[in-house]
Each structure stands twice: as C-alpha cells, then as structure tokens.
C-alpha cells in the first residue's frame, strides 16, 4: 500500500504544479491585457493618429537599445545576487545564481511575489539549505533595490527636479525600509514584539527571527558598497533608457527628470500592492510626464514602451529560463 501511494503521488504533484503554472500564466496575461486596454482607452480619447505618429518615430535599433539597457539592469542585479549568495555562504556557482535570479522574474507580477519563493525552492533543492537560511538573501535583495532607488531619487531631487518634490516621502520610506531590513537586531526585536502583541504564527516568527540574525553577514561596509553600487548601475541603466526614449519621441525633459520619474513611478507602483506595480506605475508615470508638459499622445506610448521593455521583458526572460531552472533544480536535488 505504501509503495503504491509513493508511486501515485508524483503525477498528482506534477499535475497540480502544471495547473498552478497555467494559472500564473493566465494571471500574467490578464494583467498585461488590463494595462494595454487602459492605455488604449486613453489613446483613443486623445486621438489614435497622434499616438501612432509618435510610435512611428522609433526604429528597430532604438527598441534594441532599450532592451540592452534593461539587460544591463538584470545582469548587474544578478551579479549582486551572486555576491550576496557568496557572502551568505551558499555553495552555488555564478551560473546557478543568475539562473535563479532571472528565472524568478517569471513570477514577478503574481500575488505575494511568488518569484522569491520559487528562487528559495530552487536553492533548497540544489543545496539542501532550508528557506529560513536563504530568506536573508531575498530580504537583502529587496533592501538593496530600495536603497539604490531611494538614492537615485534623492540625486534627482537634489539636481533640480523640483517638479516632483512630493517624491521626498517616497525616498524617506524606501530608505527607512532598507535600513530596517538590514538591521538584524532591530528586525529580531520587531518580530518578537509583533508576536507578543498578536500571538500569531509562532513557528513562522521563530523562523523569521533566525533569518533576521543571518543578516549580519551582509552588514560589512565593503559588502554594502558593492551591492549598492551594482544596484545603482542597474537601475540607472533603465532610467537612462527612459530618458533616451523620451528624447527620441521629441520630449526631452532632461536626464535626471526622466530618471526621477521612472524611479518614482516604479516605487509608487510597488507601494500600491499590485503585482509588479501594474497599473499604479503606469498611472504615476503618465501623470508626472503630464506635469512636465509632455502631451498624452507622447506620454502614453512612452509609458507603454518603457514598461514593455523593462517589466514585461523581464517576465519574458523569466518565462524562458523558468522551465530550465525547474528541470535543473530537480536534477540536482539533494
């Protein structure tokens, strides 16, 4: 009986996994369609002819340049993931870490950032490390992104982009979140206090406290400088892509203004809680471009193009890498 049960279980598990994958893909398609419909509605309201004329200004090599700058972002942030994995003591290679990092993008716009859980599952299979041991890696990756983007926003605001001064609270919130996420003792104390107040999820709280203590591996000045530097280069590359796109479409609002609007919109979209910031990021980007005098017939296609060549391009890469990463993790399972 036991043998038969063991024999039957894998196909059921595979079927469940397949169903979940199709569900996630359907969610991705639905969110993408939602954004496209919203932008199309605005374009129709302002006149399709003007919007299409703006799109016609762009050439294939310019789209390729935007993709290359996005790749710079992902490769530098993937390199940061590798640096932090080595610092944590994970016995993974550069190739493994890049595979995990890029493959996780496939789930970027699923609820609860499932991509992070997928990465930890792959690491657990390939190294035997429990989730609570790899959680600090995920936490530091998020904290490094927040810190880098907050610094970029701060630089943009300091260099004269006064039109988006209300971005200061976002900078402060991002820096605060990054600070808390990199303070092991503070995170541990907050976890303990949360448990004492609620009494909920005792096992999860214990695991989170253990993970918080592991953050000490990332607090050296050298590690902070390297990871922050890699994040800055990555996110500035995408900000530069947005600037070039606006220049090519005849709406040059200045490098730092473009970078600030792109970074602020990305952060603001994340704060809405929507998967991947879908909807919120686009709305913020169009609104901020309008404040700079960019007409809707330009801001709409610019927003659509930069989101396709950044967020949705990353998801596409993730969907390509995901099956390979899944197979490799099963093949190397300990």
From TrEMBL:
Annotated Gene Ontology cellular component terms:
plasma membrane
Going by the entry's taxonomy, the superkingdom of the source organism is recorded as Bacteria
| Coiled-coil portions | none
**Location relative to the cell:** Cell membrane
Is ATP-binding among this UniProt entry's keywords?
no
Membrane-spanning residues: 25-46, 58-76, 146-166, 215-236, 242-264, 304-325
Q: Note the Pfam families from the entry.
A: LPG_synthase_TM
Q: Which UniProt keywords apply?
A: Cell membrane, Membrane, Transmembrane, Transmembrane helix
InterPro entries associated with the record: L-PG_synthase/AglD
As for membrane topology, the entry says: Multi-pass membrane protein
Q: What is this protein called?
A: TIGR00374 family protein
Q: Which organism is it from?
A: Marivivens niveibacter
């Amino acid at each position: 009986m036991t043998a038969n049960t063991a024999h039957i279980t894998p196909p059921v598990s595979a079927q469940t996994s397949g169903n979940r994958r199709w569900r996630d893909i359907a969610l991705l398609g639905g969110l993408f369609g939602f954004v496209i419909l919203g932008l199309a509605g605005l374009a129709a309201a302002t006149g399709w002819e003007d919007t299409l004329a703006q799109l016609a200004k762009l050439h294939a090599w310019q789209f390729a340049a935007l993709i290359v700058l996005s790749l710079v972002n992902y490769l530098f942030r993937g390199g940061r993931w590798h640096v932090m994995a080595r610092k944590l003591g994970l016995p993974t290679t550069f190739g493994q870490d890049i595979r995990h990092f890029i493959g996780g993008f496939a789930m970027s716009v699923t609820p609860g950032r499932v991509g992070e859980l997928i990465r930890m599952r792959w690491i657990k299979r390939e190294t035997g490390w429990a989730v609570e041991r790899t959680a600090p890696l995920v936490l530091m990756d998020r904290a490094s992104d927040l810190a880098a983007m907050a610094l970029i926003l701060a630089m943009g605001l300091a260099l004269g982009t006064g039109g988006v001064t209300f971005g200061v609270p976002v900078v402060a919130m991002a820096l605060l979140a990054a600070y808390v996420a990199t303070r092991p003792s503070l995170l541990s104390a907050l976890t303990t206090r949360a448990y004492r107040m609620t009494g909920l999820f005792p096992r999860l709280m214990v695991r989170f406290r253990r993970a918080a203590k592991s953050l000490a591996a990332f607090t050296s000045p050298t590690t902070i400088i390297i990871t922050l530097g890699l994040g800055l280069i990555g996110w500035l590359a995408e900000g530069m892509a947005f600037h070039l796109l606006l220049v090519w479409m005849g709406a040059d609002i200045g490098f730092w203004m473009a970078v600030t609007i792109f970074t602020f919109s990305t952060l603001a979209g994340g704060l809405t809680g929507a998967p991947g910031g879908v909807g919120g990021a686009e709305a913020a980007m169009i609104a901020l471009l309008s404040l700079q005098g960019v007409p809707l017939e330009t801001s709409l296609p610019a927003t659509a193009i930069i989101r396709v060549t950044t967020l949705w391009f990353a998801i596409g890469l993730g969907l390509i890498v995901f099956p390979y990463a899944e197979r490799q993790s099963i093949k190397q399972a300990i």
